[in-house]
Specification:
Blueprint (H helix, E strand, L loop, with lengths): L3 H21 L9 E8 L5 E8 L10 H10 L1 H12 L6 E6 L2 H26 L16 H18 L1
Helix pairs in contact: 1-3
Length: 162
């Protein structure tokens, strides 16, 4: 078991090395739009999971996840060698590449928030001009004769004690 702080530092360093190697050393054109988002490493420092996302050519085009995954798989050995040279640890961790789902999750959350805003606006539209059901003051006011009875009960209690 490694120190958790050491594992975090190693994971961050692996992210940097892999990103740099993809940009400068690996000459696969399918990796041009790949961005490394995060790296997680096991407690024994033997396995690293590298999370990545792929950007499209334009805002409207769909990214090529299959091509990026195939390119990362083919470059896995080169990237692991770079990680071993760059980290200097006794055992170079194996690398597993996983497409990051955070951009899709963020898009879904934005859609849900937009629906919630629309529903709130609809409720606000329906509430304009609406009136409360029942009386304007729904609380019962004590009757004046009830207060007089309460005062006489207190005075009677004092007389019996005193």
């Amino acid at each position: 078991m490694a120190d958790p702080a050491r594992a975090r530092k190693l994971a961050k360093r692996i992210s940097q090395i892999v990103a740099s190697a993809i940009e400068h050393d690996v000459k696969d054109p399918r990796l041009g739009a790949v961005t490394i988002t995060d790296t997680k490493i096991t407690a024994d420092l033997h396995d690293a999971t590298v999370y990545y996302t792929v950007l499209g050519e334009s805002l409207d085009s769909e990214p090529d996840f299959a091509g990026a995954a195939a390119a990362l798989e083919s470059a896995r050995g080169v990237l692991r060698t770079k990680v071993g040279q760059g980290t200097g640890v006794r055992y170079t961790p194996t690398l597993a590449f996983v497409a990051d789902s955070i951009p899709d999750d963020a898009r879904r959350i934005e859609e849900l928030l937009a629906k919630a805003r629309e529903a709130d606006a609809e409720v606000a539209r329906q509430a304009t001009g609406a009136q409360h059901a029942g009386e304007a003051d729904p609380y019962k006011a004590p009757r004046e004769d009830d207060e007089d009875l309460a005062d006489t009960d207190i005075e009677a209690e004092k007389e019996t004690r005193g």
